[in-house]
Write a structure and sequence with these properties.
- With 571 residues, the protein is of the alpha+beta class.
- The protein has three domains: 185 residues, no CATH class; 133 residues, no CATH class; 215 residues.
- Helix content is 32%, strand content 22%.
- It has 14 helices and 19 strands.
- The protein has a nine-stranded mixed β-sheet with strand order 3-4-5-6-7-12-18-15-14, with no helix packed on it. The protein has an eight-stranded antiparallel β-sheet with strand order 8-9-10-11-19-17-16-13, with no helix packed on it.
- Strand 8 and strand 9 form a beta hairpin.
- Helix 3 crosses helix 4, helix 6 runs parallel beside helix 8 and helix 8 packs parallel to helix 10.
- The longest helix is centred in the N-terminal third of the chain and has 19 residues.
- The chain is globular, with a radius of gyration of 28 Å.
Amino acid sequence: MNRRGFVKMSASAACFMPLAGIAAYQQKQYLAPNVKPGWLIELIKINDQGIKGMAKHKVVDPNHQYFGGYMSDTEIPNPHSTCSFINEACAAVYCPESSYYQSKDLLKELNLALKALLKFQHEDGTIDLVDTNFHSTPDTAFMVKRMAQSYAFLKNSGTPGFEPVLSLMETFLKNAGKSLIVGGIHTPNHRWVVSAALTKLNELFPNPKYLQRIDQWLAEHIDLDPDGQYTEKSTYGYSGVIDRVLITMAIGLNKPELYDAVRKNLKMMRYYLHPNGEVVTEASNRQDKGQIGNMENYYYPLRYMALKDNDGEFAAMCRIIENTRIQSLAGSFSYLLEDSNLWKELPASQPLPTSYVKAFPYSGVVRFRRGPWDATLLSNNPGWFTFHKGNAVLQAMRIAASFFGKGQFQSTDIVQKGNVWVMNKKLEGPYFQPFEKQFISPDGDLGKMPKSNRKQSEVQYLETNIQFSEAQAGMQIEIEMKGTEGVPVTLELIFRKGGQFTGVEAKPNHPNSFLLKGKEGVYSSGSDSIHFGPGRLEHKNTQLRGALPMIDAPTVYLTGFTPFKHTLIIS
């Protein structure tokens, strides 16, 4: 997977398509170590098309500072686009199956791109992620891993006259190494990305300082919790990246103990799969939170560990990706190309868990799966419930009350009571009396008179209790809000865009807003549908004061007043 800052060229993306015939290739029991399988040859062809698609992003003005480099879709020359071209081009000249194999013309393009890349590189060895990070050690590390692959591809390509280009690449890599042994990071995963980059540099240009810096980061220990999840809980973005770079370190540093974290994370991910191949992202601490994501970022670690451990479940997860997201393997192409051990046939698939209730307390997640449907409970999240049934998706459920501007519900815990799972939250809404004389500042400065010194009075209370249990082909959700009476309540059922409703009524002048007062509503997407109800409509205020803003998605509202007690069936 590319760093998020790597530019995804639209022309390249357009050419990604399912690899016809991959199932036929997988019928073979064994592939000789140096014989490329058909799916890899197809990826080589896709890579060729990507190179052609990038031509429109090249800086062609010879008077431009970054002549020969590459621009983003917004026409900003940058090192990431340039590195993407270098990586694709070096892989192409290395592969006899490529139309660019040992291409002298492409070698000239590489020479210009590397000269531009060296201009992007600062004296301290770093590069910028121009979207946000400058003089960035982590972004340099993301690039170094790819550049080390490119270096090996070019060196082993036998392309006539490659030496000057390789020398430019060596200069970039060694300059980057100077930054990686001293530079800092932003996020937990950056430690392992930097360490993996140093591992690859040490393989090319052995240096004890590289190893010393790796040991400094490893001394902090791998941040894997007992659930099998990394600190950032980034199931679509960074967990797959961490698995990949830990494998790089395990190989290059001869530290097989690093495989343990990868195994545990991949085993956890068996329970984070929706029936349609998507992954649970709502608990993430990063920018992938709530995004629609699949397993493609895990393909390399899954394939590596499936072959290493002869693990049929990992192999089954690989095949899910191949069946649903095969075009996305282009993002892992260089990793699949550089290791011929990955070209062997996967072991036979073993069944993945499809019927379970599984709690992940460190992540604040409880997962329900019963064949074609699954549900997720989430603590510390205002969108505390999701329900997937094929491509019909209830992507969040929220509830709020007009209670002193703080009535948006979320629970810090999910407690199991037999077969029932419970969320709870208690709120207080006090009023405040005049300060007693001893607490009054002579100058009347309220900054010197903390509110905690005021006595409270007329305290109002609101307690929300939500209980979840399984129902016929779905979930039963019992909601009770009690305490102060007459408080307006609004419950939101937020669905994914693209489907159709029956049994609900549109709220006038409010696009994407629907009201349910009948027995049942239905949301359908293609042949998949979710049934929900019964409804309740005691008022039409769908944006309560103190509640979170409406989400830009089709949303069904139920409303009432406290004391509020309602049971929903989602199926």
